[in-house]
Write a structure and sequence with these properties.
The protein has 178 residues and is an alpha/beta fold. The protein has three helices and nine strands, in the order βαβαβββαββββ. It has one domain: Rossmann fold, CATH 3.40.50. The strands form two sheets. The chain has a six-stranded mixed sheet. A three-stranded antiparallel sheet has the order 1-9-8. It binds 1-O-pyrophosphono-5-O-phosphono-alpha-D-ribofuranose.
């Protein structure tokens, strides 16, 4: 991808993200208080920062696993082909599973992943997304927990990239082309 010149405006500060994760972790702890077998599944690559901070706030016995998912848009049909580039290492049948996503945009990625994981018969399957852009939705999909609802802006940072850069920004910023 050719990068056009741009600047990044801070949208959600590192402090606001940390405070929200503390609240979310409390709710998740309540939901899974009765389990001794929670598997936290990060969707690569975008969720790697969020999952790292979230699991350290959880204070529950967790296993961490990852899937790498890639989606190819088809603008003509507003449909997406979602491909699993790397599957889970572990089995999830009978386990409690929390899927961790950085952002829900059209909803295709999370919709596909949740359907696939549900077919593997977990005991309980929930998902959390740090960011949600409801105005972009193409398939009905709502995470069980959402960090922040945001407008339809191009965001980067805290794991999210633009042309594979800016994933290491500690805050969420919006990209403004100059
Ligand atoms: C991004 C993001 C979500 C997905 C959301 O992943 O991390 O997984 O798109 O979009 P959707 O709701 O329209 O499906 P991307 O394919 O850019 O890969 P990455 O996580 O490796 O950056």
């Amino acid at each position: 991808m050719t990068e056009r010149p741009y600047v990044i405006d801070e949208m959600i500060s590192a402090k606001a993200i940390a405070a929200r994760i503390e609240q979310l972790a409390q709710e998740i702890r309540r939901e899974f208080a009765d389990t001794d077998k929670l598997v936290v599944v990060g969707l690569l690559r975008g969720s790697f920062v969020f999952i790292a901070d979230l699991v350290r706030e959880l204070d529950l016995p967790v296993e961490v696993d990852f899937m790498e998912v890639s989606s190819y848009g088809n603008a003509m049909e507003s449909s997406r082909e979602v491909r699993i580039m790397k599957d889970l290492r572990g089995e999830i049948a009978g386990r409690d599973v929390l899927v961790v996503e950085d952002i829900v945009d059209t909803g295709h990625t999370l919709h596909h992943v949740m359907g696939l994981l549900r077919s593997r018969d977990p005991a309980r399957l929930r998902c959390i997304a740090l960011l949600d852009k409801p105005s972009r939705r193409e398939v009905s999909m709502k995470a069980d927990w959402t960090g922040f609802e945001i407008p339809d802006e191009f965001v980067v940072g805290y794991g999210i990239d633009y042309a594979q850069r800016n994933r290491n920004l500690p805050f969420i910023g919006s990209v403004r082309f100059t």
